[in-house]
Amino acid sequence: MKTLDRTSSLFWLLVSLLVFAESLRIGIGTVENPGMGFMTFGASGILGILSLALFLQASLRKEDGRQKPLFAGTLWRRVVFVLLALTVYARAMPVLGYLMSTFLLMSFLFWVLEKGRIGFVLLYALLATLFTHLVFSKWLNCQFPQGLFGF
Amino acid sequence: MDFFGSILYGFQVTFQPINFLFCGVGVLVGTLVGVLPGIGPAGAMALLLPATFKFSPTSTIILLAGIYYGVQYGGSTTSILVNIPGEASSVMTCVDGHQMARQGRAGPALGIAAWGSFIAGTISNIGLMLVAIPLAHAALRLGPPEYFALMCTGLIIVTYLAQGSVLKAIMMGLVGIILGSVGLDLISGFPRFTFGINELSDGIGIVPLVMGLFGVSEILENLEGNLQREIFKTRIRNLWPSFKDWMDSKWAIVRGSLIGFVLGILPGGGAVISTFVAYAVEKKISKNPEKFGKGAIEGVAAPESANNASAGASLIPLLSLGIPPNPIMAIFFSALIIHGIQPGPLLIKQHPDLFWGLVASLYLGNGLLLILNLPLIGIWVKVLEIPYKILFPLILLFCLIGVYSMNNLSFDLYVMLFFGVVGWMMRKFGYEGAPLILAYVLGPMLENALRQSLLISQGSCLIFFTRPISAVALGFAFLLLLTTLLPHFKKRRQQYDQFKE
């Protein structure tokens, strides 16, 4: 945990510095008449101090044994693929429309864990797409994009 | 209108067909969400929120309350049968509930969980009616300094009760305040922290934030590991607890209800903490503490009563003060704002249909859960048997639909994915999401109260210490912080002394 805490504290320190600088830029005003950067100025200042405190606390902590790498023994590649697919979906939905893009996304997501059974993958994806379209678009009147193909 | 007249009026509102339907749908969806891992009550509420836009605020709140109640019920099913808590508030139920199931007593465990929840929910509803109105009257006399102090205290309590490092919890609270300030400034009307992105002018939406931090991050965490889970196969019979079970659990239910109610009202309290406290109290005062952990029925009755009692009680600060005491109530708060209703001391007076309709729906929801859930327990067990490889794409799709349909913007999907990754990393690095969400919602109100207080006092911070309520609240918050830090300093001092010797 020592390395993780030190890494994360440095990340939050960086965030606090950026917010601190932006707060100064937009104006913190005075104590009598606080500006729109007043609150974030204070919050980022305290965040920076606490990040340093966490860094020091982690650095002074005695820990036995070697730190296990963050992604050791995990299937992190699967997570990356899913995240990429979701990002592409967010980009493609307005262009391809809800039905087409959702069917493709669902096919991919089912395929990630059911690689050998393409028939089942396509069937599940089709059912999931049609079911959600029926419930959310037809019954609950949610507005989904129609895309290039008009559906 | 007198007290009983108001209750009758509430039932009139609740028994309107649309509200009755929403109550039923809410408790069923809530139970389903409680049974399934991944979405969580906040995510489920966020998912259904866009679908409620064309309905009245009363119907919407009845639906959300039903989900919240249902989740507490549903979580116990997975705890008892699978030893996996559907929700954090069902963690303690696993300890004895699953042991009971292994001993062939899954039926009485599920039965006492349902009955305990029903009794606790009823006690909590009565408390809600008795406490919320006087508190709302008292709250009319509170000014910006008092609100600032109360919100600060709430945030400090949340960080104090954090399961991990308090330091990290405070940091998350500060990050939440910063995220809450994105968008147009409340006083000047100028944009800030939008970095030229027009979609951020209205701020970061609570739905993508919550869905990302809680829903998507949990799915990503599950995807990293082995997706297999073992369901304990048992015949569920004797759902009605025996006379001995009732005798063993009766005081556990009463004590759990009272603990849940008191902790539910406190800002920062809530269902999770109350279950831990209720379980610890039962074990402490039991004549046979060694039974706990080996299938004691009191170990199921107390936490299940506590989580339902606190669910009702946490509505009190929201409806009477306008301060959401936990992240779930933050979603309620946002739902009310979206429907054009300002939660606060005037809510009960200006919207009696909403308040009394909600109170009556809590009674109805409790009854519906008892009537529907015990016979439907077989269906919930079947739901548990659905493989995660089928569930996870569906849960992800529901998250995507819920977020998109809020504003029909793809940008919100990116925000959700961003916070999904942030939440996933937070889990890995040991940071909690609850303080962040609460601070995100309270942030703009906190800022408003602070700036108004400083304008009133012409820049003097003494205004927070010269007014009794704010002085007491801030003093309490300071004491809490001190009790957190003192053991740390004491330890350091001891290390220093040892080093010197």
Shape of chain A: flat
Number of helix segments of chain A? 5
Q: Using DSSP, what is the number of strands of chain B?
A: 2
Strand order of the largest sheet of chain B: 1-2
Low-pLDDT windows of residues of chain B: none
The span between the termini of chain B is: 74 Å
Q: What can be said about the biggest beta sheet of chain A? A: none
Structural class of chain B: mainly alpha
Strand content of chain A: under 5%
What is the succession of H and E elements of chain A?
HHHHH
Secondary-structure element sequence of chain B?
Answer: HHHHHHHHEEHHHHHHHHHHHHHH
Residues in helices of chain A, as a percent range: over 70%
How many domain modules of chain B?
1
| Regions with little confidence, pLDDT below 50 for 5+ residues of chain A | none
Major β-sheet annotation of chain B: 2 strands, antiparallel
> What is the C-alpha radius of gyration of chain A, as a whole number of Å?
24 Å
CA gyration radius of chain B, whole angstroms = 23 Å
Task: Based on the model shown, name its key terms.
heterodimer, A: 151 residues, mainly alpha, 2 domains, 0% strand, flat, B: mainly alpha, two-stranded antiparallel sheet, 22 helices, 2 strands, 74% helix
Question: Which SSEs are present, and which pair or pack?
Answer:
The complex is a heterodimer of chains A (151) and B (501).
Chain A: H1 2-26, H2 38-60, H3 76-96, H4 98-113, H5 118-139
Chain B: H1 3-14, H2 17-35, H3 40-48, H4 57-82, H5 91-102, H6 106-139, H7 144-160, H8 166-180, E1 183-184, E2 191-192, H9 206-224, H10 243-265, H11 271-285, H12 298-313, H13 315-321, H14 327-338, H15 347-350, H16 352-373, H17 377-384, H18 388-407, H19 410-429, H20 434-456, H21 463-466, H22 468-500
Antiparallel strand pairs in B: 1-2
